[in-house]
Amino acid sequence: MPDPDRLALMLSTLCFLGAFAAAAYRVMVAPYRGTWPHHGLMLAGFLGQCWVLAIKGKELGRCPITQPWELLVFISWGVVMMYWLVGPAYRVSLMGIITAPLVWIFQVLALILQGTIPPQTGDSIFRAPAKIDPWLEWHATVSLLAYAAFALAAAAGVLFLFQDRQLKSGHPHRLIFNLPPLRNLGRGLVGLLHVGFILLTIGIISAYFMEKWPNALKLGASWAVWAAYLGILAYHWRRRWPQRRLAEVAALIFLLPLASLWIVSRH
User: Where along the chain do its domains lie?
Assistant: First the structure.
């Protein structure tokens, strides 16, 4: 019998796979709208994530981001949070098609890693400190939620580019016409970039209230990500980038947060 946290993660992962299947089936038969099976499975998967995080949080006595697999689950949880918040705000029901497979991939990786990597020691965000600093907890939590928003923006950018290319090909697949308008997806992408940028700003500021500041390399990596997204948003505010170009940039620039997360985990 699997441990409770592994069982919860397995059930959650299956729910997100089912949610993606429900969304894909809807697109195949009619113009896409969120369906009760899809929403129900997304909610069940989200509750499973909460169960995993609650078990590990109680066990560790802190935010459960002490191992890579916990980090993947936490980011996945943040991605689903962004789906619930940004999707309805921008009328982007299409976010369900993006979110479910993205989270499924992250959680499959988490299942593979779970139990294979021993807990580490030190002061990385992946490592549990001897003394809990609430500002460290806040900094790590908010920063990872920002990265979740950037991940969903990158996935939205990839889907936007795929749909745009199909429409301009002259021979688009009939399923393309069952998807919501590109303008809604573009608006959702912009919203996610703004949400991620605001959260990352809060996360970086909170680092300076910690009892022990992160080293220069960690802070430099965070500031580099912050500056990159500020540049994207500033240019968009000033020049109003075409949605296609913004989708390209959002998909590509996510490599920078991924690199910075690797730097933070290694130092």
Answer: 4-266
